[in-house]
Design brief:
Elements (H helix, E strand, L loop, with lengths): L16 E2 L4 H11 L1 H8 L11 H14 L14 H7 L7 H10 L2 H19 L7 E8 L2 E2 L9 E2 L9 E3 L2 E5 L5 E5 L11 H11 L3 E2 L2 E2 L1 E6 L6 H10 L2 E5 L4 H8 L4 E4 L4 E8 L8 E9 L13 E3 L2 E8 L5 H9 L2 H12 L11 H25 L9 H9 L3 E6 L2 E5 L7 H13 L4
Parallel strand pairs: 2-10, 10-11
Antiparallel strand pairs: 1-17, 2-6, 3-5, 4-5, 6-7, 8-9, 11-16, 12-13, 13-14, 14-16, 15-16, 17-18
Length: 443
């Protein structure tokens, strides 16, 4: 068995090394979008730094998020990464104190400008490479526990994992086809999703074109029980939007469910489905309710979910819908909304959703919007530039296989050369992605 090196000397003089060599591809993609110029021209900056333009500070935060740095304080490791700084076009990387002070200084005007930049990019990528004639909106919410009582907007509300802790309760809308975000709103922890449902729908509706190629765009919506409300359902009916929303299993609905005739639609697991016309209390009209039941699994951890009702060894789910589909097809349509749960998990585990950087609510809202923008940028980069299995890879996988690639930045015959490891197994995919970025033509 070969022995390790017995004699080894150390030197700290090399300034051309980086362990984020693969981030050069992502940086080239952002340059193709003109991201720095959008930040400079579309955001009304109310402050200037002597050393850094605010657009550069935004890019530093974004690149740090994509690289896997969860907290602002983690960016300290980039202060000595000279090659990473050169890729960004910086003389030096700002300190974590500078980045946090920059976030704290952001006001409502800068936040509004950041939202406009994000919406402008969403519009460009929705129409590229071709506009779609249908749109599916997936509404979801999550709870972000906060460890600090002085943080603005930190309120005690629904928090199943950390009861009696202050929290934020953001709501997010995803595009059901592309998994891009349509909208995100950071809200105090004592608010409910239904209080912002109509506003969310109006804002998302404004981002979807009414007609494409003279054909009316069909809009459908999926949401969990947090958005189950008479006024919201009535609004969707008036707008002619197809929807499937999880209904709360109230006692009258439970009584009606007990007398329904179920039919098996999934033999593996013995899942059964039924439907009924039902008018909840205070609702003006009766609506179509689809009820799905399945045998109780061996593990009982699902029994605590609010949308499940246990009766005679079955768990029951109920949905209100106006879609002209068979009951089983309505459940399958809603089941695709599970991707939204995975997207929320991606925001929490791969990106710093839940890491609150300041005590100011506006600054935290700007940080939240930057997280959504980083998520969308990675999504567009993966969909339009990456080949093969990387198109379906999660961000954490892309970091291990692409972004966290050791490299050396050299200057050879007055040309910048990024030297990569000779044994890198994904060399062909790397060059295919680089060629695709260079060919990209986004209006």
């Amino acid at each position: 068995m070969p022995k390790g090196l017995r004699s080894l000397q150390f030197s700290f003089g090399d300034t051309s090394l980086t362990h984020y060599g693969g981030m050069a591809l992502f940086q080239q993609f952002c340059r193709k979008l003109g991201l720095r110029r959008l930040f400079q021209r579309q955001i009304p900056w109310g402050r200037r730094d002597n050393l850094y333009h605010p657009a550069e500070l935004l890019l530093c935060i974004l690149y740090g998020m994509v690289a896997g740095l969860k907290r602002i304080s983690d960016t300290r490791i980039l202060a000595y990464n000279r090659s990473f700084q050169q890729l960004l076009g910086l003389q030096r990387f700002p300190s974590d104190t500078t980045l946090r002070s920059f976030l704290r200084s952001l006001g409502p005007q800068e936040l509004e400008g950041l939202l406009k930049v994000h919406d402008r990019l969403r519009t460009r990528f929705r129409e590229y490479p071709r506009a779609r004639t249908s749109a599916t909106m997936d509404f979801d919410s999550t709870v972000l526990p906060i460890y600090g009582w002085t943080i603005q907007g930190a309120k005690v509300g629904y928090n199943p994992k950390k009861p009696r802790r202050p929290s934020y309760h953001p709501v997010v809308a995803f595009d059901g086809h592309s998994r891009d975000t349509l909208l995100g709103i950071l809200r105090p922890g004592n608010t409910q999703p239904i209080t912002v449902a109509q506003e969310m729908f109006r804002l998302c509706q404004g981002k979807v074109p009414r007609y494409v190629h003279r054909k009316r765009v069909a809009v459908r919506l999926r949401a969990d029980a947090g958005f189950y409300d008479k006024d919201f359902v009535q609004l969707l009916d008036e707008e002619g939007v197809g929807y499937c929303i999880v209904a709360r299993m109230t006692h009258p609905l439970q009584a009606r469910t007990a007398g329904l005739r179920f039919r098996t639609f999934r033999r593996q697991g013995h899942w059964q489905v039924a439907q009924t016309a039902y008018q909840p209390l205070h609702w003006e009209l009766s609506h179509r309710f689809v009820v799905v039941r399945r045998p109780k699994p061996p593990r009982e951890e699902e029994a605590g979910q609010l949308t499940l009702w246990e009766f005679h060894d079955f768990f029951y789910h109920a949905f209100v819908s106006n879609l002209p589909l068979k009951p089983a097809a309505i459940y399958r349509f809603y089941a695709d909304r599970a991707n939204a749960e995975l997207d929320i998990r991606e925001l929490k585990e791969a990106l710093p959703l839940g890491k609150i950087p300041t005590v100011r609510f506006t600054a935290n809202a700007a940080h939240f919007e930057l997280i959504l923008l980083a998520y969308d940028l990675v999504n567009w980069f993966r969909r339009l530039c990456l080949p093969g299995p990387w198109q379906r890879a999660r961000l954490q996988t892309l970091r291990y296989e692409l972004f966290m690639l050791p490299a050396r930045l050299l200057n050879v015959h007055h040309r910048n050369v990024l030297a990569l490891p000779s044994g890198y197994p994904h060399r062909q995919r790397f060059f295919k992605a680089l060629a695709q970025i260079r060919r990209l033509r986004i209006p």
